[in-house]
Design a protein that fits this description.
single chain; 26-stranded antiparallel β-barrel; five-stranded antiparallel sheet; globular
Amino acid sequence: MFKPISSNYFQRSALTLAVWAAFMPVQAQTSPAETTIFVGAGVLDGERADRSLFDQYSGIRKDSSVAGMLGIDYSLRQEETGHWVDFHGSDLLGDTRELNLVWKKPGEWKFTAEYLGLVRNETSQVNTGLLNAGSTVPQVLALVGGAGSGSNFDLQTKRSKLGVGYTKVINSRMQLAVDLKTEEKKGSRLFGIGMNCPTVYDPTCLGTTGISVGWATLMLPESVDSNHSQIDARLSYALEKLRFSVGYYGSFYRNANASLNPVVAGNLYNPVGTLLPVSAGLLGYLNQAVALPPDNQSHQLDVSGNYNFTDKTRGTFKLAYSTASQDDGFVVASLPGTTSLGGRVNTSLVQLGVTSRPMPKLSLLADVRYLNKDDQTPILAYNLVGVTPYTNQQLSNQKTSTKLQANWQFSPDYRGSLGLDYALIDRGVFTPTSAVAGITALRETTEETGLRAELRRRMSENLSGAISLSSSKRDGSTWLKDTSGLGVSPVTNLADPALVNGIFMPNLADRQRDKIKIHADWMPNKDWSVQFSAEEGTDKYSSPSVYGLKDTRMNQLSVDWSYAVSFRLQLNGYASTGVQTFNQSRYAGYNLAFDNSNTSFGLGFTAKPNNQLELGGSLSFVDDVSKYAQSLDGTADAYTVASLAASGGLPDITFRQTALKLFGKYALDKKSAVRVDLVHQNSTYNDWAWGYNGVPYTYSDGTTLGQKSGQNVNFIGVTYIYQLP
């Protein structure tokens, strides 16, 4: 059985890799190696609350404002043997260290090795009374002093990745490549549970009253201790007209923590902040074990390649078969004699394509792809609530897609293309013993046909552009209504009130999609370069219901440029703005228009005033705003009307960030230099889902989760660079 690699192994391997890369080639070297060492330190200002967004991936420890920096670049070329060795190491004193080794003899073999560390810090600060937070057995104790009276807890995950690869040229026609990767992840991340008492099925789990709590949300950090390993091997062979490769890919995920087992005390806060006993039924639900991501594995074999029928026609192909399984043991036996899900999905893929140039001005492309997912998970009655037991559902499906495209060169300045796309998804027969909650009806098949057209023109020697249009229409088979554990039945009356007021999945609804895109490249001279693009698209959805997602819209406008003022000064910049809109409605009169707008721009420069001094920098700004425009139709009741009038609806979610980065590098002599980096970052973030206007989100035990809405941070780093002879 595959076993995860321990963290000690990662640390030893990283150190061994660094030492081996630095000294292994010395015995055989025939020419001096080039080695550059980077040593420095950096300092951050501001409180921890001012740094949460900056510290998310910075690699600087939260409890420190000072970071040491150590890096190395090593390169060796052995002319006599033809061996090349390159080694790179960065942030060797921190938790985000990176080591890369490439050792090869071009045309014969290549060996690669890498070690990568990544630390992610949760941007929100947790204040809690949890005992054993971050473990698999957290104990929930309500904060008797009220929200915010607990102690701070940092959510953090650390990843360590180790990979090795070897490529061997067996002969002029055959090559073998093998890559192995394994990644270990430890720490804790944001997670939790919640329950609104189902009083219909459990009378002991009452709703919130003046004497007990029947509704709760709890922040229970997920304890992370997992390993993901991958194997990729490929044998390639080339003939005069045929080139193909045979490959194997394996993925293995192992989680050391099978479940989260909370221990919840008998008192929690109700929604208005009163500490009350928890109802017996709710307490039973909250103390249930929560399953964490289970162990799983997958294997895939494939054959792919191409064949040259003539010098103008080429065919491509790919055949693949994979099997993925999830047979990790259940935390609690769901059924007598059942120890695991026994999940298994087998996938078959066939893809064939051909490209041809029958005429100098005409090129053709055709591609057909067939994907079959066969879900062989055993069907068992896991849900025994109510009169009719429900089973799980097998989710097999078949997808067939076709792509046809023709390109025609009208003249040296004009080139056009026309394409046709087709996709058919067949989800198979609905598992009759399963049930679907929250959805009114399903579809067995959906079918989509699309048309694409593009025209490119070279307007001058320095200016070229293109415009493309695309349109597609999706519809499907007859709607099927779930009959609660007794299968499905075709919908014959679309005017049925249950359908008119029902809920339908957007990916099954009829859809009309249209899009236009314009692109231009302008190079007025050798110093200027400008790229411009604009696009807009709409989706319109249709289903038997008057509710649900109705239409979406997006538009994007961007420009990128660069300008070489002289060989010592270069400028660059970009600007973009875009909007995404979702219009939907729901039962009881709610209409919601969600608009997300994003605007960003940046300016940068690099300069070399003289041969010793190099300067550079960038200024960037991003403004992201999400708006929730709420309104009511005539079916809304008086309470809903009064509530919306009193609250004004959901507030906006905003994120704005300005970042200034500057650097200067000064050469002390031919072998050494000093570099100074300056960073200023100003961020504003306000998300009502996790707190608003400085008030953090509060859980039922008084735990709070929030972050400072306005953050400022400054960083200065000094690095000494020395090149060994």
